[in-house]
Specification:
Strand content: under 5%
Distance between the termini: 67 Å
Largest sheet: none
CATH architecture of one domain: Orthogonal Bundle
Order of helices and strands: HHHHHHHHHHHHHH
Structural class: mainly alpha
Length: about 350
């Protein structure tokens, strides 16, 4: 018998098979009728949305790396803010009790004793007090150099990213030249141009060194914003170019720049200590600074290494704290690396 002439399978099985199938269909229809009825489909949650900053903070407050960096940074800021209160002794005046113990040949550096847990330097001044007060100078150099480089980088990056054309080419070629020089070498070269070294020469040298980093980063962010939907919509509506730049492009481009500022702050502290160590910072030791204390301790590094260990440890810990915060902020704010 050919396939075309074969009888229907359900009919060949008899009337009982058709009855069972009809019973299953009836049972399915009955179960559907008793199911809860959905009045509205695809309803939208009316709860307010969460901003990028609020979303990032939810992750950061559970991030142990960020919390560790925040604790170190807050402690450093508190010590620097209340250094004059926390310092047990005057860091600029020799302690007569310690000064009497100094013997240039046998005992040039008095050791720790009750009331002076870290001992003194080679001039009888309390080492702990100098470390505490030195945090102020380190903080000032790091913060001001970062602020100045941020302002300069924002200016150049905005010009290059907003105007484009020959302005972009001119700014970026100057930035490329500055980036081709190692940062520490550039900072040393700029600080060496000053007729009289001071704290401000260090600030300016470090600010000029990191200015191209902010300029290039902001320029790249603004170029990405130029082709975004909200900028194209603003142009289609006839919004003025200046309003598009300062209301739409620039605010949405500042996230990576702010994160980079925390990382630059860490390296600025290290570079400031390096310049002071080389003698290009403030020569007045009545205003202690950690890099300056390192430079003074190099003469006694073999016999009295603690003179260099304490300021070096302070520099490393503070820079480490800023780095932990910066890396955590970068991961929390960057959608590509968001955890």
């Amino acid at each position: 018998m050919s396939p075309m002439t074969q009888p229907d399978d359900s009919r060949s099985r008899g009337p009982h098979f058709g009855g069972r199938r009809k019973a299953k269909i009836d049972d399915l229809a009955a179960s559907t009728a008793t199911a809860p009825v959905v009045d509205e489909a695809g309803t939208v949650d009316d709860s307010p949305g969460v901003s990028l900053i609020a979303s990032a903070w939810r992750r950061l407050r559970r991030d142990r790396v960020f919390l560790a960096g925040a604790v170190i940074t807050i402690l450093f800021l508190l010590v620097a803010a209340f250094a004059n209160v926390l310092a047990p002794h005057d860091p600029t005046r020799p302690i007569q009790h310690l000064l009497d113990q100094i013997r240039p040949q046998s005992n040039p550096v008095p050791g720790p004793e009750p009331g002076y847990p870290l001992g003194s330097d080679t001039r009888g001044r309390d080492l702990l007090s100098r470390l505490i007060v030195g945090s102020q100078q380190t903080l000032l150099v790091g913060v001001f150099s970062t602020i100045f480089s941020l302002i300069g980088g924002l200016t150049l990056g905005t010009l290059a990213g907003a105007l484009g054309g020959w302005v972009d080419s001119l700014v970026m070629r100057a930035v490329d030249v500055m980036l081709s020089i190692p940062s520490l070498l550039l900072a040393v070269s700029i600080a060496a141009l000053a007729a009289r070294p001071s704290q401000w020469t260090v600030i300016i040298a470090i600010a000029v060194t990191y200015l191209p980093v902010f300029a290039r980063l902001l320029r790249g962010s603004m170029l990405a914003q130029r082709s975004s939907d909200h900028v194209l919509a603003a142009r289609a509506l006839g919004v003025k170019p200046a309003a598009i730049v300062f209301r739409h492009m620039l605010p949405n481009s500042l996230g990576p720049v702010i994160v980079q500022a925390t990382l630059v702050l860490a390296t600025a502290v290290i570079d400031a200590a390096a310049l002071s160590f080389l003698g290009l910072g403030n020569p007045d030791d009545r205003k202690p600074e950690w890099g300056q204390m390192l430079g003074e301790a190099q003469k006694f590094i073999g016999s009295y290494p603690h003179l260099a260990f304490y300021p070096a440890a302070c520099i490393i810990v503070v820079a480490f704290g800023f780095t932990l915060m910066g890396e955590s902020l970068r991961e929390a704010l960057d959608p590509k690396t968001r955890r």
